[in-house]
Specification:
The protein is α+β, with helices and mostly antiparallel strands and about 600 residues long. The longest helix has 14 residues, at about 415-425.
Length: about 600
């Protein structure tokens, strides 16, 4: 099905984004990875945004810019087959990612980029092919991001739902099968609705891909006719018979698989230390952009969880099942563009050859998603190209040694240079000092009249209602104990949001969610007592979309809790926007009191 749809759309999609005018360029005496094979010394001629000749011989046209490719390799523009493109749309191109396949973003973003592509006016950023609004159940995964989206409840409504997405401009349909984790179930589409949605997409000649997180849901999605799986599943091991059966099923269904190691590693508590330690790559990320890359979803690493997806990926590649490179950028522990270079290394670590990994980020996603004449270096294809030092078919890390990026035949050197200058200027020694902490460090000044603080905007209720949740919180200042009036928090954590919470938050900036430089502090302390239940301190900094949580328990007697800020991995203390004390995500009634909250420098 995927190949048929790809061939059908190829001609129509060729017109998208390929009309940008650019000077004639000849990349001379360069290795060429054509999307499948690395060739020895060749010359590639670029004219009018296209590859005029992938193996040029003869007289060089007058006025041609000649680029020396000696010791270098020319690659098709890289394609990230799984992102959530809601911000930093100009960032991927700086890292050689000329196309992104988006699995869920705002309709306005999708439509804006699609319009620019149709006009041939998108040479300054990566092209975008998007599912638009994903297909999920009410309260299911995908409803937790702060924007109201339509949801699907039954098979009978699947065709109308799919048609509505296509009318908005979705290029394909993305379906969610996500049941949550032990202790935190998430509503999910039933199998009948999943199958009806896949059938509805196919009826309109569109691909249907499925988000899964378990082996069981992966098998079910393939059995239902999914064209591809946009994740693999974590696990410390996989039974050999189960592995063989799964691979055989994927091959029989002619499906493609996007493992998304970048986000799976983040869930397993691992960071992309290889790219974080690459000074040339990091010179293209502002401090805010780097923040997301420095975090992870789990507080401590568990590398064993990656054993199952690595084994599955190796077996899929060996069996000839298409494996696509996708990062799930937009999530904690990832960043657009740069994470794809880590993903390539992760695919090689999982068992792909460097050449197979390169194909997974070029020709394979172009074919799987029917993206037209891109993903290869061949006559007539889009001149989306990356020139790198060395030979990434032997050493996959060579993709990081970028010399030049072309998008629609336009050299992105000025864009890369401007970003490098911006980052360098940001890193110059700052004249301003960190925010001065109160002499005793105390940031709580609760009274019947005001939830005050000598620092920042102060305190306010924190709960999921502002993004559609149903949790509630009541705050009440009690009589002073040892000179400090405690704040009593009664939280009702209710279903209605996938990760519900309720509590109280401190805003250290001049306004709610404004960043403040708290780098003078090293430790957060507070006194607490309550109902014996588990709670969380949640800290958020600019550039991080999901708070980093550290747990504590509120027992029957007052106790002091001391938490080093260094324990909140991925949080930049110079850009903190919120410190919250929350109940959840387990549903129920919660009661705790908090007092004497301090930020200390020791």
């Amino acid at each position: 099905m995927a190949k048929l749809i790809g061939k059908t759309l190829a001609a129509a999609l060729w017109s998208i984004g390929c009309t940008a005018m650019a000077s004639t360029t000849l990349v001379q005496n360069v290795r060429v990875f054509d999307g499948a094979t690395m060739h020895g010394s060749r010359s590639v001629l670029i004219e009018d945004g296209r590859i005029a000749s992938a193996d040029f011989h003869g007289a060089i046209p007058a006025g041609t810019r000649v680029v020396d490719g000696s010791g270098r390799s020319l690659l098709p523009g890289l394609i990230d087959a799984h992102v959530h493109a809601y911000q930093h749309l100009d960032l991927p191109l700086l890292f050689g990612v000329t196309t992104q396949v988006d699995m869920f973003t705002g309709v306005a973003v999708m439509q804006e980029v699609s319009a620019k592509m149709r006009r041939g006016a998108n040479s300054g950023q990566a092209d975008l092919f998007s599912a638009g609004i994903l297909v999920t159940a009410p309260g299911g995964h995908g409803t937790e991001y702060g924007m109201a989206i339509p949801t699907l409840t039954c098979p009978q409504d699947a065709q109308a739902f799919v048609d509505a997405r296509l009318a908005e401009g979705s290029h394909f349909i993305k379906i969610v099968m996500e049941e949550g984790r032990p202790g935190h179930a998430v509503p999910s589409l039933d199998l009948a609705t999943v199958k009806a949605t896949i059938d509805a997409a196919h009826l309109r000649g569109k691909l249907a891909v499925v988000h899964v997180s378990t082996a069981a849901s992966a098998r079910a999605a393939l059995d239902a006719g999914a064209d591809g799986l946009v994740h693999l599943f974590l696990g410390s091991a996989i039974d050999p018979a189960e592995l063989d059966s799964f691979v055989a099923l994927a091959k029989a269904r002619h499906a493609f698989i996007i493992p998304t190691f970048s986000v799976l590693e983040s869930i397993g508590g691992l960071r992309e230390d290889d790219v974080l330690g690459d000074q040339d790559l990091m010179a293209l990320l502002t401090a805010e952009q780097a923040q997301s890359l420095k975090g992870s979803y789990a507080p401590s690493p568990n590398a064993r969880l990656l054993m199952a997806p690595r084994a599955v990926t190796a077996a899929l590649a060996k069996a000839g099942v298409p494996v696509l490179a996708g990062t799930d950028a937009g999530n904690t522990g990832t960043q657009y563009g740069i994470s794809l270079h880590h993903e390539l290394a992760a695919l090689v670590q999982a068992g792909l050859s460097p050449g197979q990994a390169l194909a997974a980020a070029t020709s394979a996603p172009a074919e799987a998603f029917g993206l037209g004449l891109r993903g290869r270096i061949a006559d007539g294809y889009k001149a989306d190209l990356v020139l790198v030092e060395g030979d990434p078919s032997q050493d996959i890390a060579a993709t990081r040694r970028i010399v030049t990026v072309w998008k629609d035949g336009v050299d992105a050197a000025s864009l890369r240079g401007a970003q490098q200058q911006k980052v360098a200027a940001e890193r110059l020694p700052r004249k301003r000092s960190p925010l001065a902490l109160p002499a005793d460090g105390r940031i709580s000044a609760f009274s019947k009249d005001k939830l005050g603080s000598p620092l920042g905007f102060g305190w306010m209720p924190s709960q999921d209602g502002f993004i559609g949740g149903k949790s509630r919180v009541a705050l009440d200042v009690r009589e002073a104990v040892e000179g400090q009036a405690p704040l009593a928090v009664h939280a009702t954590v209710a279903a209605g949001f996938p990760y519900p919470w309720a509590g109280v938050a401190f805003m250290p900036g001049s306004a709610p969610m404004a960043p403040a430089d708290l780098s003078a502090a090293t430790t957060l302390t507070f006194r607490v007592k309550g109902d014996g239940k588990a709670y969380q301190v949640a800290i958020l900094s600019k550039g991080v979309s999901i708070p980093v949580n550290v747990g504590f328990t509120a027992g029957a007697a007052w106790k002091e809790v001391r938490l080093p800020l260094s324990g909140f991995k991925g949080i930049d203390a110079s850009m903190i926007t919120m410190i919250a004390f929350n109940a959840g995500p387990a549903l129920g009634e919660y009661d705790f009191q908090i007092a004497d909250v301090r930020l200390l420098d020791n």
